[in-house]
Amino acid sequence: MGRYVLGIDQSTQGTKALLFDEKGGLVCRTDLPHRQIVNEKGWVEHDPEEIYGNTVQVVKNLVEKAGIEKRELAVLGISNQRETAVCWNKRTGRPVYNAVVWQCARGADICKRLEDEGAAKAVREKTGLQLSPYFSAAKLAWIFENVEGVRRQAEQGEIAVGTVDSWLVYKLTKGARFQTDYSNASRTQLFNISELRWDAELLQMFGIHPSCMAQVTDSDGDFGETDFDGYLEHPIPIRGVLGDSHGALFGQGCRKPGMIKTTYGTGSSIMMNIGEKPVFSDLGVVTSLAWSMGGKVNYVLEGNINYTGAVITWLKDDLKLIASPQETEALAKEANPCDATYLVPAFSGLGAPYWDSGAKACISGMTRTTGRAEIARAALDCIAYQITDIVRAMGESTGIEIGELRVDGGPTRNAYLMQFQSDLLNIPVRIPDSEELSGIGAAYAAGLAAGIYTEDVFGVLKRTSYLPDMEEAKREEKYSGWKAAVGMVRSERR
User: Is 321 a member of any domain?
Assistant: First the structure.
């Protein structure tokens, strides 16, 4: 009998189940989408019950598709969309409100209020994060302030809050475990990353009762066990939990200071391992925990972008300019090379390194000859420009010369985008032969913790490379045009 490692990657658009063999090779994958609940204000929500139901179902589908015996599953690792905030009743195990998704900026007024009270500096010093509605704290504060009965239930010790990992662990263990890992905790804006604990002052600041918070556990620690609502005859341990971008950093093998990766998804996370001591930057990138494994933490610098892959979805679903994301590569290559159209996708404000929740999206630089191909190319280009903003800020913050960028996610299949990214950064871009780096990282952490894998597992991935091929003057001309376009949408201009 083989021993298989099971990975669950619960992402913004859907939930994947991944099956890995004893050598760390990906054997099989199944996935299910969930609804994107968006109202007229642009607020974004998910149904936590739908996400949990899909999590159980994708595992059933995986076992059936792979043709393995249930008893061959040995251990589970979970990666998850981060910052998305879930609030549920501990007694009933049911959500008191939909999950407020990381893209949702409804907490902007709460952050503005705290900023006016002078709280931003304390938030930054304790959490490494800019005071922003992007993170979980303001989303949870919104629920506490706007959903009837939640504050009262919290005072009675009945409310649990957390990121999606803690919701899944709670449900998968039938309420036996209420835990989160260090990577996810560090993204809530409620966790003191120097003292490694929930911070009483921050909890009070956002109006969250301390009894609502999960136990924080090593990313390769013991998160209980699950039988997936009775599907398995014998439960399996949950031994790896990581936020999706942290999982990708680990899966990419970026375990040494100075190593950097970008996950291209609905949004993007650019993350640099900076070792066992935090580095705080004033250049718009934030400091978080990479993970804690074996009782030892690693820190990262990170920049987050709200709209990268989601820009292509917008082209397809809203503008109807393309029928599938794959069309963008050919369109970009057809576009007029002299066209200087820029798209700044500030649909819900700008994330790192600008942190401007009041910014509005804009297309600029068009001429009469600008058409479908040029707009499609501008949509791809804006992904690379946003990532370049952050990588440059990281290099300047640390003084480290970045030698390469390791990347993952669906958009890395786009050859035009990858070449343009390499050209803008003037460094190699390395793409692994698997897209599932978030799930791979969590599964590898679980497999290592369970003794199934050794360090050799990180050699399983094979990589292809894009090398820079753009003149310096052209690179700087294009990037200067991007910075000018961003300047046009900043909220302080209005």
Answer: no
* pLDDT for the residue 158: 97
Q: Does residue 298 belong to any structural domain of this protein? A: no
pLDDT of residue 104: 93
| Residues 400, 374 contacting (CB under 8 angstroms) | no
pLDDT at 493: 60
pLDDT of 494 higher than 60: no
Number of domains composing the chain: 1
Q: Considering the entire predicted model, what is its pTM?
A: 0.86
Residue 289 contacts residue 298 (beta carbons within 8 Å): yes
Rounded mean pLDDT, 340-358: 91
492 lies in some domain: no
Contact 43, 27 (CB under 8 A): no
Q: Give mean pLDDT, residues 157-174.
A: 98
Evaluate whether residue 130 is within a structural domain: yes
Contact 58, 424 (CB under 8 A): no
Note whether 485 and 361 are within 8 A (CB): no
* DSSP one-letter string for 139-205: HHHHHHHHSTTHHHHHHTT-EEEE-HHHHHHHHHTTTS--EEEHHHHTTTT-EETTTTEE-HHHHHH
Residue partners of 124: CB distance under 8 A and separation at least 6: 130, 131, 280
Pairing of strands 225-226, 429-432: unpaired
Determine the structural domain holding residue 186 and report its residue range.
Answer: 4-243
Buried b (16+ CB within 10 A) or exposed e, 21-36: eeebebebbbbbebee
Instruction: Determine the Cα–Cα distance for residues 374 and 339; give it in Å rounded to an integer.
Output: 7
Domain of residue 96, CATH code: 3.30.420.40
Could you check whether the bond before residue 353 is cis, i.e. omega within 30 degrees of 0?
yes
Please give the pLDDT value at position 254: 93
> Which one, of 245, 278, 249, lies nearest residue 352 by Cα?
245
Residue 282 pLDDT grade (very low, low, confident, very high; cuts 50, 70, 90): confident
CB atoms < 10 A from the CB of 219, how many? Answer: 33
pLDDT in tens, 57-88: 999 999 999 999 999 999 999 999 999 999 99
Amino acid at 26: L
